[in-house]
Amino acid sequence: MTNDQPIESYFTNEIHSALTKVGLSEQDVEAYLGHLLVDFLHRDHIYAIRDAAGHRLENVVDMIAEGDIRLNATSFDRERQVHKHIGDFLLFWSGVFPEFLRTIKRPGGSDALIDVVRQGQMSYYMASTFEHDPYGVEAPTLRKLSNDFEGYQQGLLLVRASFEGFTAHDWTEGFSA
Q1: Domain boundaries, the chain
Q2: pLDDT grade for 4, boundaries at 50, 70 and 90
């Protein structure tokens, strides 16, 4: 897979190094996570799920309801889209910025009782069950993310650790086009 974005190439290389250390080096997952990190550089992509009224959903509990065909999801495709996003959302925050989880899991908050690992695994699993076109190609990758969610969290923590200590010069020199 060729990549024209230097930042995504950098992330993918860091992910490869980190996942090799935790024994989960898989090219499809590395590419997926590299793209995820680039995609989530934009706040609008982190909070991409909106309800029927167009309101941005920031709580996992609200996202779960939005992705439930028995509640708010208007189609099975919508159910898949939301659950894939929940998996991405939880893996990103718990792997790259775990301190953020304290803010969403504050006592009395709607997400206080969410088990991040279990919900991330379940959401990726649900999305992985869509094995028909156009989702079939991505289904095995999502299944891997479900099965080894905690290992991929650890890998992303190692990626984050590789960022620490960078200076502004490192970022601009490393990513100039």
Answers
A1: 6-174
A2: low
- Residue linked to tokens 């309101």: 55
Among candidates 161, 85, 80, 166, which has minimal Cα distance to 128?
A: 80
71 Cβ neighbours under 8 A, 6+ residues apart: 65
Reading the block at residue 15, the tokens are 């992910």
How confident is the model over 32-67, as pLDDT tens digits? Answer: 999 999 999 998 999 999 999 999 999 898 899 999
pTM: 0.86
